[in-house]
Design brief:
The structure holds 2 protein chains of 2 kinds. Chain A has 13 helices and 2 strands. By secondary structure, chain A is mainly alpha-helical. In chain A, strands 1-2 form a two-stranded antiparallel ribbon. The relative contact order of chain A is 0.13. Chain B is mainly alpha-helical. The chains are: A mainly alpha, B mainly alpha. Chains A and B meet through helix 2, helix 3, helix 5, helix 6 and helix 7 of A and helix 1, helix 2, helix 4, helix 5 and helix 6 of B.
């Protein structure tokens, strides 16, 4: 009897107390997760509704008439050619900034280069410098020296993408196993085939991520293109900025905004799926 | 650096490594040196659009004007408010995703999908959501004349909300990466040793997350101080945040305002640089405390 009357050990006590505490916790956590979900989704909801709203007068909660008027208006305003410009600029920037970033990262991680720390700091410095200040100064120089605005723009966008490509590739090369390349060389592979068949395939996922980030910097840019392009480079962001500040035709503005949001998200999803598939193989 | 890494570094010739880094250094140095150099030269009258160069500090004396002081104040206030909200929400989201299950994949996915949305798009979306005829006002059945002025209003709610919206996703992703399996193990060990939930958060989770928090908060604040389009679209006409003020002076038909535009640009670079410096010092401290 005394054994039964003995007080329960604290261990059992917490084990009993736990379920109720964690049930409250689960409710709190679910509520917090839902609130954060709403926080991140909310701004995109009116944008998507407006993109398919032909008529949506105040104070209607939902569009009165659905349709594709906004899409027609957006493409009449030049969304098609703007998208082509955006793609061209972003692809060129990604194609330049990715190999440059990878080479610099390789140098910083696997070679003993002079002033390596300084070089590393300089290459990430652009993230701490406001781009608008740089291009306001730069445009006077390019005008004076007769450098074409498109060249100046691509160079500036590459410079502001490099911090991202260098950082991603440095992480890749820090974890990179050099012995594979050495073995390939020992077995008689030429430097070129070692690069293409051993080295690059090993860092391919990081190269893809770098290219995506560089693409995104150029694709998202508004002010650098406005100043250095001097109104002649009409990307989707330029079109969005000018139509948002002038027309007030909400449905075509929402369509242009949606056209900017969609491609990076599709790309990101595709990258994740392909990386996951390669990892499974 | 491991000894292995040192050995393999020593085996490669020095010159080749520097050559590999040069193509990346060239555009960065060209853009930063020419851009900032020209901004400084123009601000002190040594690179005039017309006429003879003559050194003057008048553009910097003009920085003492109330427009610049108010612009500086509003820029810092927007950066501080949006970064503070982003840190709290981003950390909360990262902890929810890292620690406990309910719909965690969904939350991480939303954060990852928010980061690539350009600020210009975010600003327009925020306008469609929060303006007096926006979706929130419609859903509440509000009277647009009495609806609080969230867009272009005295409290800069729309601007702060947009920055906090995107930067919170950025903070969440950075912190999530830094909270590795180690946090879970240490936290469980602390729980077995009798630490309460608050103690575990205070002494295990927060110290492990703080370097990532400091880095992401610093990058956000420096970015917000130097960013143009959100304040331009959702802000008021006065006071103008520094980038908006600089760009308006830059595009003024009166070319005499050019040096002042450049002085404001140089000032903004200084502010962003100071934020980066404070962040670096804080990072050193959190790293040292560990």
């Amino acid at each position: 009897m005394t054994a039964v009357a003995a007080p329960p050990s604290p261990r059992i006590d917490t084990a009993v107390a736990r379920p109720s505490r964690s049930r409250v916790g689960t409710v709190v956590r679910s509520a917090a997760s839902a609130a954060l979900g709403v926080w991140w989704l909310a701004p995109l909801v009116p944008m998507l509704l407006w993109a398919f709203a032909d008529r949506w007068t105040f104070p209607d909660r939902l569009p009165r008439q659905w349709g594709l008027d906004g899409w027609r208006a957006a493409f009449e305003a030049g969304a098609g050619s703007a998208m082509a410009s955006s793609l061209a600029v972003a692809v060129v920037v990604a194609v330049i900034a990715t190999p440059l970033g990878a080479m610099a990262a390789r140098a910083l991680e696997t070679h003993d280069i002079r002033h390596g720390r300084l070089v590393g700091v300089l290459l990430v410095l652009p993230v701490a410098v406001p781009p608008f200040a740089v291009v306001l100064g730069l445009t006077s120089v390019t005008l004076r020296w007769g450098i074409p605005g498109s060249v100046a723009l691509i160079t500036a966008l590459v410079a502001f993408s490099l911090p991202y490509t260098v950082s991603v590739m440095r992480a890749a090369y820090a974890a990179h196993d050099l012995t594979m390349e050495e073995q390939a060389r020992t077995l008689g592979a030429s430097p070129r085939s070692t690069l293409w068949r051993v080295h690059l395939p090993m860092v391919a996922p990081s190269l893809v991520m770098s290219a995506f980030l560089a693409f995104l910097v150029a694709w998202s840019d508004y002010l650098m293109t406005l100043v250095l392009g001097a109104g002649r480079v009409t990307t989707l962001a330029q079109l969005l900025g000018s139509s948002a500040s002038s027309s007030g035709h909400d449905s075509s503005v929402a369509v242009i905004a949606a056209l900017i949001v969609a491609p990076p998200l599709v790309l990101l999803a595709a990258i994740h799926l392909s990386i996951r598939r390669t990892a499974q193989r | 650096m491991t000894t292995d890494a040192t050995e393999r570094r020593a085996s490669t010739p020095r010159g080749r490594g520097s050559l590999l880094a040069l193509p990346a250094l060239a555009p960065v140095l060209a853009v930063l040196v020419l851009g900032l150099g020209s901004a400084v030269l123009q601000s002190v009258g040594l690179m005039p659009l017309a006429g003879q160069p003559a050194f003057t500090t008048s553009a910097y004396s003009a920085l003492a004007s109330p427009a610049v002081a108010d612009g500086m104040r509003i820029s810092l206030a927007i950066a501080a408010a949006s970064t503070a909200i982003a840190v709290v929400l981003g950390l909360t989201a990262a902890l929810l995703v890292h620690r406990i299950a309910p719909r965690r994949g969904f939350l991480a996915l939303l954060a990852a999908a928010t980061v690539p949305v350009p600020h210009l798009v975010g600003a327009i979306a925020t306008g469609l959501l929060l303006s007096d005829s926006g979706l929130v006002s419609r859903l509440l059945g509000a009277d647009p004349t009495t609806f609080p002025q969230l867009i272009a209003g005295p409290w800069w709610v729309g601007v702060v909300a947009e920055y906090a919206w995107k930067e919170s996703a950025f903070v969440a992703l950075v912190v999530l990466v830094s909270l590795s399996q180690r946090e879970r193990e240490l936290s469980e060990a602390a729980a077995v040793l009798g630490a309460s939930a608050w103690e575990r958060f205070r002494r295990v989770t927060l110290p492990l997350a703080s370097p990532a928090l400091v880095v992401s908060a610093t990058l956000s604040a420096a970015y917000v101080v130097g960013s143009y389009e959100v304040s331009w679209l959702l802000g008021r006409s006065y006071p103008e945040p520094l980038p908006v003020l600089a760009y308006r002076l830059f595009t003024d038909v009166d070319l005499d305002t050019r040096p002042e535009a450049m002085a404001v640009a140089v000032l903004t670079v200084g502010v962003a640089g100071a934020i980066a410096l404070v962040g670096t010092v804080m990072l050193r401290r959190t790293a040292a405390a560990r």
